[in-house]
Amino acid sequence: MTPAVFFGFAFRHLGLHSSFLAMKRVLSDQIVVDVTPPELVFRLPNRLHTAVYWRWLYYCEYAIRRFYWRSERTLVHHFHSENTMLRDDRWKRHHLLVATVHQPFEELLRPVPGHPSRPKFLNALRACDAVIALSECERPVIDQFLGDRRTVAIPQGVDCAFFRPPTFPRAHVEPPRVLTVGNWLRDYDTWCETAKIVLDRHPTVRFAVVANAENHRLIRTRLAERLSRIELHHGISDDELVNLYWNSRMVFLPLRHAVMNNAVLESLATGTPLVATDIPSVREYAGPAGIYVPRNDAESAAESILALLGETEELETRSAQARERAVSRYDWPIIADLHRQLYRRLYGESSDSLSQRGAAIGA
């Protein structure tokens, strides 16, 4: 089988063990094209960085154009398709095209004024031979857009060797810490209200937040009188992140939406009990290992956090469930094999059967 072209880039806030860089290692038997911007781009002042970064991504697709010139049929896979897949429908010819969709698809269908790349992405998506949804619950809306069953659900993975449980009893760490990680689609308004309730009702609990400067400002403004019990982290290393998981009683993730979530996967892999907004994709990933609270309900979230803080046995049970789920379902080698199976299936189909492949993928 001709190796697939695995094409993508790394976001600056994700480390070596997450997303594209992790997939790049486990799919090293394929042709990997990494268009991550140079480190210099990431060091530019914010406004200049944004302008250069998105222009870089807009043109990086030309790095794979040469593969479409081949006479031998080649499969091209855009891992961050929303950001890079804009021209492939014009270049594709007899080749195979696969896209992974990371963002909530309903959001991608909404017109965005001044966003000329969105229609180009949707046109390229229609030309795909398979579209990978990162959660099963996203498949129906993508299939409806495509008009057939070309969508296959393959979850995001996690490095279970790196994101592993601590060697010491988590419940013995004092003071107890509640950890929140990330920015995109997080609900920090509800986070602030929840933290306020928990801090007022529990005498020793601390909160730790790994987020950007904007969310840090929000927390400092809303919880100015309680900042002595809130740790704000930004730009930390992978090792520092793992250490935060190890030294936290639980992860709290209030969300506005999600298709997948690296913090959910990392909490599962490190065996850190999870309290999260009740969103279908989060339930799909975490299953019975998670505790779920209604959207925008700070009181329910606070009650769940406080109840879990007082239950050592429950912490240990959920920790074991979380770790087992991560190892059995989401370890990167498992996810890589699912991709290889899809590549083989698509390569194995004759050109006459391309119109029927959706049924095979969705079976």
Quick summary:
The chain is of the alpha/beta class. It has helices spanning 19-26, 39-42, 46-59, 81-84, 88-91, 105-108, 117-126, 139-146, 188-201, 213-222, 238-246, 262-269, 280-286, 298-309, 312-329, 332-348, 357-362; strands at 5-8, 31-34, 75-78, 96-101, 130-133, 151-153, 177-181, 206-210, 230-233, 250-253, 274-277, 290-293.
Characterise this structure.
- With 363 residues, this protein is an alpha/beta fold.
- Helices cover 43% and strands 14% of the residues.
- It is built from 17 helices and twelve strands.
- It has helices spanning 19-26, 39-42, 46-59, 81-84, 88-91, 105-108, 117-126, 139-146, 188-201, 213-222, 238-246, 262-269, 280-286, 298-309, 312-329, 332-348, 357-362, and strands at 5-8, 31-34, 75-78, 96-101, 130-133, 151-153, 177-181, 206-210, 230-233, 250-253, 274-277, 290-293.
- Strands 2-1-3-4-5-6 form a six-stranded parallel sheet, sandwiched between helices. A six-stranded parallel sheet has the order 9-8-7-10-11-12, sandwiched between helices.
- Helix 9 crosses helix 14 and helix 12 (262-269) crosses helix 15 (312-329).
- The longest helix is centred in the C-terminal third of the chain and has 18 residues, at 312-329.
